[in-house]
Amino acid sequence: MDIRAARREIGRLRAEIERHNWRYHVLDDPEISDAGYDRLMRRLLDLEREHPSLVTPDSPTQRVGAAPLEEFVHVTHAVPMLSLANATDEEEMREFDRRLKRFLKLPEEGAIEYVAEPKFDGVGVELVYENGALSVGSTRGDGVTGEDVTSNLRTIRGVPLRLRGKKVPRRLEVRGEVYMDIGDFDRLNRERGERGEPLFANPRNAAAGSLRQLDPSITAGRPLRIFLYSPGRIEGAAIGSQWEFLRRLPEWGLRVNRHVRRCGGIREAIDYHREMEARRGSLPYEIDGVVIKVDRFALQERLGVISRSPRWAIACKFPPRQETTKVLDIVAQVGRTGALTPVAVLDPVRIGGVEVRRATLHNQGEVDRKDVRVGDTVVVQRAGDVIPEVVKVVTAARPPGTGPYRLPAKCPVCGADVERPEGEAVSRCTGISCPARLKETIRHFASRRAMDIDGLGERIIDRLVERGLVRSVADLYRLKEDDLLSLDRMAEKSAGNLIAAIDRSRKATLDRLIFALGIRHVGEHVAKVLARRFGTFEAIQEAGEEELTAVREVGPRIARSIATFFRQKANLAAIERLREGGVTCAPAAGDATGALAGRTFVFTGSLERLTREEAARLVEGAGGRASGSVSRKTDYVVAGADPGSKYAKAKGLGVKIIAEEEFLRLLGRR
Ligand code: IVH
What we know:
The chain is of the alpha+beta class. The chain contains 24 helices and 24 strands. The strands form six sheets. Strands 14, 15, 16, 17, 18, 19 and 20 form a seven-stranded antiparallel sheet that branches. It has a five-stranded mixed sheet with strand order 2-13-10-3-9. It has a four-stranded antiparallel sheet with strand order 5-4-7-8. The longest helix is centred in the N-terminal third of the chain and has 24 residues, at 3-26.
């Protein structure tokens, strides 16, 4: 095909594709099948590939493909994107109407015309069209400046790259909401769950997260939609009212929600609010209220803005969706990090079109505060969130013979002690091998700053645990290359590398091992402090709460957590098996910041509290050096009972001689 014919054909295909996009996304009334649409797209792609010079940025083939960004650029909105004042009930809506009439000096019996719209629960955005072509798309941000997310907005099929029609404004700024349908959101989360990716809390977060991707190809894979509802600056088109504006948008190819309504007065707007509330549960997307706007732009202008909200509009929120039902049971769910969450098992109830069988009680404190008991009748709410929650108990309906609920003292999954440090909300399982948290335990254990087992990524951990090859971190040290090769998609080379990395970790330093155990409140720093002060794993393990608390930087909360950890039989077993697996742990690497950094010690005579070996390890743990013989370079000779010739030599050289007590003081242990 010669280039002139190609140009004609490409033009024809684009127009046809755009028309189908418009029918599908804006009018909600498609004319062809998906397969037919795909055929048109393929034909256009082929032609553009044959004639690259004919590709233009507004071609429907060019929605995806912009390169990932380093960061978003800020853009200032020509007209600030305001926020809305709230009305919480019908009386406040009437008061809003009266206020406007007073301000405009209109008689109270007269009527202001309004436009009523759903209030969409998504992400506010602005699109700018210059001479019909989409030039910039941005988030609302703080209302004054937002982020330039043009490449991401271009991937949304409901966003036309070029306005329809012969007469388009020279400049059109139009605001709207990017959102996700509830069904699409559920599907997306299910897929993410299957891939082990974190879930989005609700459709709004999913939409926001998807729109704020630096790589547009990720956004392109997310089921985002858009409704437009509000003008920014418009040049080259005369529009006198919100209603007229909303009617023009679809002609230009911009999607408007079909539940918008013109109301002859506040009474109709209130009716609209009631209707939408009743309809809310059957809409495919989340709305959290309705917005009432004065229709005429001239009136809007007279009314103006107060404190960043227009005086001419108000958001009328819906109460969160609630139902009452019965608590059949309360169970403790153990999460991936070992946190125990009390969950109410409910007599199934439909809330906003979804059947709810369980509701979270968050934590023990919340249970206490609400005093939720098995057998209670409770109010349950889905507040746009995925996880329903118990709001309150209908105390009048409480049956006799109930008692307060307490989370179990033992983990329902592994039987280890459950710990809830004072002042904290969350109760946690302390069992290092608890199946509920095993994957997370291993991930932490192997992480770079812990045992640094390179190549033991999340995927492999999942497979090792799911195949039952690893039931505790100690099992890592029993893995054979053949075990790894039995996992699908594991190449021989990477299996060999992983085995070598595991082997290297056998000699990790003491502080790393301590940190790797994932003891609550024992971070890297505390692990270093402990390694330095105690020198050996055994010494830490055997130290009681009191001895631990005596260490500077170890408070009672940390001490209790460590003591509890080492009281768990299963943890002791895992540690024993680590030892059997050859994990020896070298003393912490000479630490330039240690209490004894750069100092050389020599021991002579018999010490009272420490063996020579322990003493030497303590010195090294604190960044010092333990030597066997005295020289001018010796900083301290530590003399026990019946010191030998080293004592005399030290005296002769003028080296400082100290007693065991003094030595322990230097370490900060006394
Ligand atoms: S009009 C000055 N209309 O609500 C007019 N906003 O609190 C301001 N929103 O950030 C916006 N649905 O993202 C308007 N039908 C609707 C809306 C709507 C949702 C959001 C919007 C804005 C927030 C204002």
